[in-house]
Amino acid sequence: MKSLSELGAQPIYMLWSYTAASIGSDCPLRYRGKCLDVDAIIVRGLGRGLSVEKYLYRYAFLKTAESQGILVINPTDALFTARDKFTSLRILHQHGIPVPSTVATENPSDVLREVERLRKAVLKPITGSLGLGSFMVDDTDTAYYVVNLLLTLNQPIYVQEYIDKKDNRDIRVFVVDGKVIASIYRKAPQGYWKTNIARGAKALPASPSSEILETALRATSVLGLIYAGVDIIEYEGGHVVIEVNASPLWRGLQAATGVDPAKELAEAILRRVKK
Fold first, then answer.
1. What is the mean pLDDT of residues 187-206?
2. Where does the record place the ATP-grasp domain (predicted)?
């Protein structure tokens, strides 16, 4: 909001719980009971632990906004596709972008068979962020308890090949409007495998290879995103995209690199609004 204000825009902060969408009205979108009159909506979060009904409503609200000519960043369909870890990786794979071996299922037996095949796997909910709810398992006994926990929460299970990271780190590449603006290594604490900054990983400036940067740009483009944090693991023999985050946080990246993604994003949005 500060960056938008400095560029001459008039941002307002919106909470989902005060929004409304309507059909057959001269006021298709409302906020706090008043007609919403904006040029763009920047979605910085859909919320965690949403019911199916809230998830569908928030999708409907944003699609209504787009139908009224309002610019939604990231675009609604792209945002919701990226939120679905399995579908986003499937699309990347179909476009030749390297991703880990992954299975999504509601069947506990499928999970246990996959863990047995992979020998080391990551189990997590099919949606989520900040590394919350992810478990690394290397035997079917441990997997059995994790599976039952996730099923108790009525969650489908997402099973992904565990890949040994080079130097126990991954790479976050931040893309805005077709350009890489910054990259960091996210180095996990000693003896820990999660590389999320929110889980204690350290952000360090990075200069990835041109091949990795091109992968990040392609992944963002293939999913139809205007901006994204693309998470990539380097390993002996190559690299894979593990996730494309359509509402990435950037405090750690900004502190490590000095680059201000808010300013870059605000400029990109205003360019598109003016068009």
1. 79
2. 89-270
